[in-house]
Amino acid sequence: MANALLGGLWAIVVVAVVVGVVATVTHSGKKAGDDFTVPGEASIATSGKSVESLCAPTLYKESCEKTLSQATNGTENPKEVFHSVAKVALESVKTAVEQSKTIGEAKASDSMTESAREDCKKLLEDAVDDLRGMLEMAGGDIKVLISRSDDLETWLTGVMTFMDTCIDGFVDEKLKADMHTVLRNATELSSNALAITNSNCLIVTRRPMDNQQNSVTAHGRTDPNMKSGLVIQNCRLVPDQKLFPDRFKIPSYLGRPWKEFSRLVIMESTIADFIKPEGYMPWNGDFGIKTLYYAEYNNRGPGAGTSKRVTWPGFHVIGRKDAEQFTAGPFIDGGLWLKFTGTPHILGFKF
Questions:
Q1: What's the DSSP call for residue 80?
Q2: I need a surface site. Which of 10, 38, 288, 316 has the fewest CB within 10 A?
Q3: What is the CATH number of the domain that holds 103?
Q4: Could you tell me if 211 and 245 are in contact, meaning their C-beta atoms sit under 8 angstroms apart?
Q5: What is each CA distance from 230 to 178, 180, 203, 260, in whole angstroms?
Q6: What family does the entry list (predicted)?
Q7: In terms of pTM, does the model score above 0.90?
């Protein structure tokens, strides 16, 4: 039976977010998902998929999808999308500032309460200033946004810390609870913005045709001395909407050997529950399973367990020392050239 490498890659860069649809490998001569749209760089198939993908790493997906669906207004421009993310967070904090002014007002004569109210006022003003700074940055070049992603993460972390400190400043438990309620929406939306800013890549596996199976990767290496290989670091591997309902019925794997010395390393990534416990699929009998190199390090998520992984001689659960050689610095000499590309990157470990 003929084998086809199917799928494509679509991406949208929002600060440090790279949302990709990974190529899907199936056992068939037919092309699964021929009706799937593969847009160009920095665009997505639909605004709905854009918002869903952006909100995937957040803790508060419902509020994220609701607010961004309204705020982005269908735009696919990465700079405009980020502007919407920052604006939503800013408006929520500004609203919280107004609503918080009356909290503790009845106990203003109490020195501790009044001190807490004054602290909150200053902290929330600082949060607004930081978010305004993000909005100003969002008006600039997208490459500047990407290069300053660490600054953006620091600002958003600061915004959330300001709100937590504000709440903790109240001794009266009722006032503390009231302030927490007022700041809940602002906290959720700021958390969403931070998660969107901090996520490096999303690999979405599509639903294949009936009686087919998925392999996220299929690396080929014909000589053990070749330096090539696939390294997936700080990514999230998830099923798409069409695959999700049948994710336990349709076998999905992290990889299979396309050539004899196939090499794949997955590290510091989050693997969803759609991946089969064995992790990898054979390609043609025992082809390559003794000569390939598949390794996992410090992954998380329901699909990251390695206790039931394949027992092939070429599969390894490695430690930090062995994993380090596959980070961008040593593996592709990233320190020598990546900085000149303008591409956001880390040369070592993320965690």
A1: H
A2: 38
A3: 1.20.140.40
A4: no
A5: 51, 45, 14, 14
A6: In the C-terminal section; belongs to the pectinesterase family. In the N-terminal section; belongs to the PMEI family.
A7: no
In sequence order, which ranges of the chain are alpha helices (DSSP H)? 47-55, 61-72, 78-100, 111-138, 142-147, 149-168, 173-198, 320-324, 328-331, 334-337
- Residues 41, 110 share a domain: no
Q: Are residues 75 and 156 in the same domain?
A: yes
**Domain total in the chain:** 2
- Tens digit of pLDDT at every position of the chain (351 positions): 222 222 222 222 222 232 222 222 223 333 333 332 222 323 323 344 457 766 766 778 788 888 878 776 766 566 677 777 778 888 888 888 888 888 888 886 788 999 999 999 999 898 888 888 877 765 656 566 656 666 677 777 788 888 888 988 898 889 999 998 989 888 888 777 766 665 567 788 989 988 899 999 998 888 888 888 899 998 888 888 889 999 999 999 999 998 899 999 999 998 999 999 999 999 889 999 999 999 999 999 999 999 999 999 999 999 999 999 999 889 988 888 877 766 667 888 988
In terms of residue numbers, what domain contains 336?
Answer: 4-49+201-340
Beta bridge partners of 252: 214
| Whether residues 75 and 43 fall in one domain | no
